[in-house]
Amino acid sequence: MGVATSSWDTNKRLGDDSFSWALRLYHQHSSFEHTGLRHNGQSLPYHNLFPQGTRVGALLDLDAGTLEYVIDGIKKGKKYTI
After folding, report:
1. Where are the domains of the chain?
2. Neighbours of 30 (CB within 10 A)
3. Predicted structure pTM score
4. Phi and psi torsions of 21, nearest 5°
5. How far apart are the first and last CA of the chain?
6. Beta partners for 80?
7. Which of 19, 37, 61, 62 is the most exposed place for a label (fewest CB within 10 A)?
8. DSSP H/E element including 61
9. Dihedral of alpha carbons 47, 50, 53, 55, sign
10. What is the DSSP string of 9-56?
11. What would the mean pLDDT of 60-68 be, rounded to a whole number?
12. What is the DSSP letter of 66?
């Protein structure tokens, strides 16, 4: 799940450049590059917060220019400036 600005390089996956943000949840993948909260080619191990059955959402505030993830209805994690 992710968002991107119009400057995002569509030849890259979401989160692999400075114009996109992604939350990658691959429970069967061991590579740090493929899981977690990803932006500008860097990952944070955010996926450890999501046991199976967790509801995940995103709050995108275009007026404030921020992106924040929500877990089971509770705001958690890093708030990004877009």
Report:
1. 2-81
2. 7
3. 0.71
4. -135, 140
5. 16
6. 67
7. 62
8. strand 56-61
9. negative
10. -TTS-TTSSTTEEEEE--TT---GGGSEEEETTEEE-GGGG--TT--E
11. 87
12. E
